[in-house]
What we know:
- The complex is a heterodimer.
- By secondary structure, chain A is of the alpha/beta class.
- Chain A folds into three domains: 3-168, Rossmann fold (3-Layer(aba) Sandwich); 190-350, TPP-binding domain (Rossmann fold, 3-Layer(aba) Sandwich), CATH 3.40.50; 367-535, Thiamin diphosphate (ThDP)-binding fold, Pyr/PP domains (Rossmann fold, 3-Layer(aba) Sandwich).
- Chain A contains 25 helices and 20 strands.
- Chain A has a six-stranded parallel β-sheet with strand order 3-2-4-5-7-6, with helices on both faces. In chain A, strands 11-10-9-12-13-14 form a six-stranded parallel β-sheet, with helices on both faces. In chain A, strands 16-15-17-18-20-19 form a six-stranded parallel β-sheet, sandwiched between helices.
- In chain A, α3 (49-63) packs across α19 and α17 (367-377) crosses α24.
- By secondary structure, chain B is an alpha+beta fold.
- The A-B interface holds A 117-118, 121-122, 125-126, 129, 146, 179-183, 185-189, 192, 303-305, 307-309, 312, 315-316, 318-319 and B 21-22, 25-26, 29-30, 33, 37, 67, 70-71, 74-75, 77-84, 175, 177, 180-185, 187, 189.
Amino acid sequence: MDRKGAEILWDTLVHAGVEVVFGYPGGAILPAYDALLDFPIRHVLCRHEQGAAHMADGYARASGRVGVAIATSGPGATNLVTGIATAMLDSSPVVFITGQVPGWMLGRDAFQEVDMTGITMPITKHNYLVTSADEIGPVLEEAIYVATSGRPGPVLVDITKDALQKMARFVPGSRPVRLPGYRPDLRALPEEFDQAIALIDGAKRPVVLAGQGVLQSRATGELRAFLEKAQVPAALTLLGLGCVPASHPLNLGMMGMHGEAWVNKAIQEADLIVALGMRFDDRVTGHLQAYARAARKIHVEIDPSEVNKNVVVDVGIVGDVRETLNRFQGQVAPGHRDAWLARIAELKGDSAVRDIQTLPDNGRLLAAHVINDLWNATGGNALVVTDVGQHQMWVAQYYHQETPYRFVTSGGLGTMGFGIPAAIGAKMARPEEEVWVVVGDGGFQMTSAELTTCVQEGLKINVALINNGYLGMVRQWQEFFYNKRYAATPLRNPDFVKLAEAHGLASWRVDKRADVRAAVERARLEEGSVVIDFRVEQEDSVYPMVPSGAGLDEMIRRPSPIVETSQSDW
Amino acid sequence: MAAESNGRRSASRLQALVVYVEDRPGVLTRVASLFRRRSFNIASLTVGHTDQPGVSRMTIVMEGDDADALRCEANLYRLVNVLRVENVTHLPSVQRDLALVKVRCPASARSDLLQVCDVFRARVIDVSPEAMIVEITGTEDKIEGLLDVLRPFGIIEMVRTGSVAMTRGAEAPSVDPHFVHATVSGVDSGQPDQQETGGQGGTDVL
């Protein structure tokens, strides 16, 4: 039976299990919106296409299923770009559907025409320009397959208006996707496994570096079994948080620029690094020449182009992390590494006294206190979405992730404005979860219009606004590296409480630590979404910090008043 | 360059990659865009049909060492439309470049020029009262050699295709979709590295 391209579009998505799309209509995509009314798909109307992109991304990250965002041609499509790049850098499976001017107008600078496949070539895993109705179904099935298989990533499908309007015949799922050049299921050679096992068995001071790939390949159980059998401690990347319970004795915590000092020191002292589903980002390695020089290196990665990209390794294992870990776990010898674990415990040394939680309550509200109390009050069980900046690092440090898949954050691209829309997507994906967004006053203002989307969709998210009146992370860099010359970082903010109320949310202000817990409790009781304006210490900094370009163990540590006192006693 | 390679891996300034791609719109842009954004320098790139419908073949000569070539290869495989990549730099292989050179040539110089062409086995494919067009096929070196001796006559314009490359012997790289490629440690699971069926060293001279 012939039907319109637009109907094939929705039918294909429904057949693929898509239940919700995030988008914004416009001229070129209008035929698709018209047909949407006849299909069982929920459409979430964002207030800016960037919001739709982050929502679909947040949905994908929280659910592990494909997220779908839809926009019209021209400005609608270009507004998606930041969200597409965000999904690309964090390997998030999102399909972006954009309208395009009719085929006969292509290349003539028509109204709202922009070369979307050209623009997004470097920031998508793959993209398509669809100019005929019969391509719509097969291309969408291909796009979903490419987005979700192998190393996941965003795929853009740009569809001309006339392709949506014309008639074609397509039965979803009727023919297998055929991509002769696409290899999502690479395997390492048996001798490479043998080399890796030999290195692990022979290591005295091994460290596992676990990244998002562990979560994406659903390998948390396998990782834990491997760590426990081989007695290897694990350091986590930002996006890997949750893949080992925070309280697990072999979990060291987060590594990298704002990782704990002992974690980075352990990596620098290690004689073997086993990197799993991570990509040695510069925020993780610090200065490459000084990185883990004593260590042999094994890199388990599904994407061969990541191996030997930043860090040259001894053994590269291309393949799925879960399968690889199963093999490791079966073959490695049970480990006894008490000396190494004792050494790491020793490295933790003074960190406890430098911990911000141990700072005396002097009446000022510290952001880390807010995060800690939020963690306590929610029992550590909320699904936490962050924006980008200082608050993001404090969440990573103080909202301890005991379970996987409860932490959504923009890592690779570091996209301010990600938090609120990504939380909407996450809540759509996991409505049973208590969703908290932690967001700074800078990032909040980039996408706060999406608060109305929450209200419109009847969603409950809780926004913890960490308001310090500065673009805090940039201010911190100015403090450390630019002699406190605060160029363009102080913010003159609107009244956030009134702003949230204008959007129809409950909102109030908190400026004392004593009130934090009660505020969290109250937010949980409110029926709708809330914004809590936490007025925190203005010039606080995230410690420890590895300055950009420094060695991983050259950290700026928190000046600890307790340490200073004990020294002056001597 | 690789034309006289002896099949051993070593650092090299120029790397020759043979890349099989699906013949679809935009594939050339994807490949070129990849080279640009990963900061690989293309010395030359040629593309044309193969005897297999729907499959095009590129020869890309890039600047870089073996590690760069491996990185480039892995990145090329990230492109969904790329079917197969083979680095022929260290394989026994032949490379050819084609040039058309329009040379200033009054009647008085004609016999001299023809003589030069004869030595280089170049062909004259057009003659006009004041100029000739010379066609030459060969290695980059050979073409450079001809250009050196043509220059005194006066080169009016020139066009070159860039290198095309092919390994020697009876084997050809498979573009079979089931070919699983998993080389990251410098181990090539594809064609054997030391295949020397074509007589290494070859006769790739004038």
